Amino acid sequence: MDTMAMMKNMSMTDMPAAMDTDLMQDAMMAMNAASMAATMCSASDMRMGGEMATCAAMCSNTAMMADTGMRMMMRPAGMDLPSMQAMLMAVMTMGTMCAAECRGHMDMDESCRYCAMACDEMVAKCEAMLASMSA
């Protein structure tokens, strides 16, 4: 499915912020990838037992935050600048913390390595999106 074509088809004239649809697409795709990687990492962590409980919980929270951020971006007519900025900051903070946690376990579980990479990519794309936003 071409989400970019769908986004360009939506009316964005009522949005209170100028949004770059290419950067939105990049951010949404990165959020989706991080959500999937964090979900899989959490599942892998759970099978490893208690020593991975913090990582599993952090990955689960990251997956939910990334998915929520992506869904907010898919409804541009309901966006306002302060809430979008706050959402991106929250997603970036959670992604940064999750990547750091997973980097500490990369030698124990390959899922952690993939999750850290996906979170780093998501943070970078969200930073670019946030930097481009203007009222």
Structure in words:
The chain has 5 helices and no strands. It has 135 residues and is mainly alpha-helical. Helix 3 packs antiparallel against helix 4 and helix 4 runs antiparallel to helix 5. The radius of gyration is 16 Å and the shape is elongated. The two termini are 30 Å apart. The mean pLDDT is 88.
Essential attributes:
135 residues, mainly alpha
Please summarize what this structure is.
The protein has 135 residues and is mainly alpha-helical.
E-strand count: 0
What would the average pLDDT be, to the nearest integer? Answer: 88
* Helix and strand sequence: HHHHH
- Using only CA atoms, what is the Rg? 16 Å
Helical stretch tally: 5
Shape category:
elongated
Identify low-pLDDT runs: none
What fraction strand? under 5%
Structural class: mainly alpha
Percentage of helical residues?
over 70%
Task: State the major sheet.
Answer: none
For the terminal residues, how far apart are their CA atoms? 30 Å
